[in-house]
Fold:
Amino acid sequence: MLTAVIALSALALVSSLLLAMVARAFAVPSNPKVEEIEGALPGANCGGCGLPGCGELARRIADGKADIDSCPVGGERVAQMIALIMGKSYAGGLVRKVAFILCGGDDQVAAKRFYYNGVRDCTSAAILFGGDKACQYGCMGLGTCEGVCPFDAMHMLPTGLPEVEPVKCTACGKCVAACPKHIIKLVPVDKRLHILCSSHDRGAKVRKICAVGCIGCTKCVKEGPEGAIAMQNNLAVVNYDFDIPDTVAAVCPMNTIRAISLDGSGDNAGVKAAAGGGV
Structure:
């Protein structure tokens, strides 16, 4: 009995030594900067950079496979810290973005085809004839985007549309990916003019089902700088590379275009209006 115990112990010891030798022989040298970079990152593991988490982003930055400003949550402050770790210069210029709801059709202005009393989830509701909204492109108002936001930056309003708090939003993109209607977009925080509609229906139909929908009249296209607003399949779409004057919003007969301050530099009453229907 004692012989068997001694033999097994000896075998375990030899196996441990062999495993240790193999581990040392095949060990992959680690980059010491990875831990420093990961410490500089927010640690939210939100996936906003397109990777599984902060650890993977740190490894890619350290290996030169990702830019030092790849973290949308950390912004320029984190990019500057990572630049110091990497021994690189960073000139800045990263424009912060926030989530924006490209729909103004709340329960007060948008018609419904039927009463939905199912699971409170937009993706599930969309399976049932595309949802209860008469506009097949409109927000379903069931709060799936609110549920996936890891930063408490999105809240459902009683009127049936989500409200984004720009100060809290980090542009992680989770709400963008979660929306089955694809009406949430990340927009530059320093741009003021936005089109609160995603419908590609013709104007005549839009007028019947939504009081604030885009009817494709092209007035904004003609009023704005050339190339600033374009018509795409009956819908006016803003090119955020342009600085568009607020006056363009005044020509919209449906109040679909709004001048809204997202960076706190102006009257932010329009932010709630953008998420909650008419102004």
